[in-house]
Specification:
single chain; alpha/beta; 36% helix; 14% strand; globular
């Protein structure tokens, strides 16, 4: 499905012009604001001198998911939000667009990642094929370890493939990053559920270390009448369905329940898919909404309506009934009220420690209470950005290398 891009790519000359606006700050607050600490001034300087491929190499040395992060990162509150131009009321450097320019050049030039081949190398398993595991695997292969990634879904990529809105990042682009990492020698095994089709005992016997990067589960239920009706879907299933070209009907009137970034993604997608009247219903006031302000503004400009202080109490065939007496027409209802923890899988690994449904790790190494297990991403942080998963996956890989050396 061809959705309009949220931020079209920069033309080469426009990228050079924008790069030359950079002040190349010595203390680089932009780099400090990036969870993966990309050397932003360095890569922008390379773009300014016409070396886009070298810029990409600088990015990838810090963050192997440089392409997806250039598209889905909330740069307004990270690198661009820290730009010193804000101090003089000027527009910040468009770091995200410059990063995308460099990464697109890298992929179009058939660039490759560094890796080693080591005899009798240690073996590491990654559970889940999302951003955290991809970053972990790439870092391990750089040092010659053998890596196998297991995932229950047919396509790897995790959130980038199934959960990020199409207008931000496509499955095709997600596949480009996966193939880049596969080319280093990482083995991918799809359709494998750890604890079911693959036992924990077999995993522990066959691998020297195990990384847990399984992310989060489905949208939490509301527990109200009508929630099982056929036109009520959870936001992640909705996004995954249209991203993988599954047949889908979106009614003219759509109600999205929730106030986070996933609710915004689902609502905007529903507009693109033919929803004439799309509303987001949030149980609290506008000031309490957890979605980023720029996401909210984008949804408003796309024509999404917002209804505040509206807590659903009943779903019918054609509407959402709220506790304040408001009745919202809805031929399609999308639930986006937060994801559940994958406790069924995590609880099978009895030697790790969980706190509030999240894996407890040493934040410096990603190591769990069981020294053989490491973890990162949403199963550790509770649900943050792709760039956070990339940072934690790489950090855990460095912890694994230290542990196995």
């Amino acid at each position: 499905m061809n959705f309009p891009e949220l931020h079209p790519t920069l033309a080469p000359q426009a990228a050079v012009t924008e790069a030359n606006r950079c002040l190349f700050c010595f203390d680089a607050p932009c780099a400090g604001a990036c969870p993966t600490h990309i050397d932003v001034p360095r890569f922008i300087k390379k773009i300014a001198t016409g070396n886009a491929f070298g810029a990409a190499e600088t990015i990838l040395s810090a963050n192997v998911l440089g392409l997806s992060c250039s598209r889905v990162c909330p740069v307004q509150v990270l690198c661009e939000g820290a730009c010193v131009y804000h101090n003089i009321n000027h527009q910040p450097i468009t770091i995200g667009l410059l990063q995308r320019h460099a990464m697109e050049h890298f992929y179009s030039s058939a660039g490759k990642l560094p890796y080693k081949t080591v005899a009798n190398a240690k073996k590491v398993a990654c559970i889940g094929a999302g951003p955290a595991s991809l970053a972990c695997a790439a870092e391990l292969r750089k040092h010659g370890l053998e890596v196998t990634i297991f995932d229950k879904r047919p396509q790897p990529g995790g959130l980038n493939t199934y959960g990020v809105a199409q207008y931000k990042f496509t499955p095709t682009d997600s596949a480009r990053e996966v193939e880049l990492i596969r080319a280093t020698g990482v083995e991918f095994r799809s359709g494998v559920s750890v604890g079911e089709t693959l036992s924990i005992e077999d995993l522990e016997r066959d691998f020297d270390a195990i990384f847990i990067g399984i992310g989060l589960g489905l949208t939490q239920p509301l527990g109200i009448p009508g929630e099982k009706l056929s036109h009520v879907v959870n936001a992640l299933d909705f996004i995954a369905a249209y991203k993988t070209a599954q047949p889908m009907h979106v009614g003219h009137s759509v109600a999205v329940i929730g106030g986070g970034n996933t609710a915004i993604d689902a609502a905007v997608a529903a507009k693109y898919l033919g929803g004439t009247h799309v509303s987001i219903l949030y149980r609290r006031a506008e000031a309490n909404m957890s979605a980023f302000s720029f996401e909210y503004e984008h949804a408003r400009h796309a024509g999404v309506n917002f209804i505040w202080n509206a807590r659903p109490i009943n779903f019918t065939e054609h509407s959402v009934e709220c506790d304040n007496g408001i009745v919202v027409p809805a031929q399609t209802i999308i639930l986006a009220i937060g994801q559940s923890r994958l406790l069924e899988t995590l609880s099978q690994i009895r030697t790790i420690q969980l706190r509030n449904g999240q894996v407890v790790v040493n934040p410096a190494t990603g190591q769990t209470a069981d020294p053989k297990y490491f973890a990162g991403g949403d199963c550790v942080n509770g649900g943050r950005e792709v760039v956070d998963a990339a940072a934690e996956g790489k950090r855990a890989a460095q912890g694994i290398l230290q542990c196995l050396s």
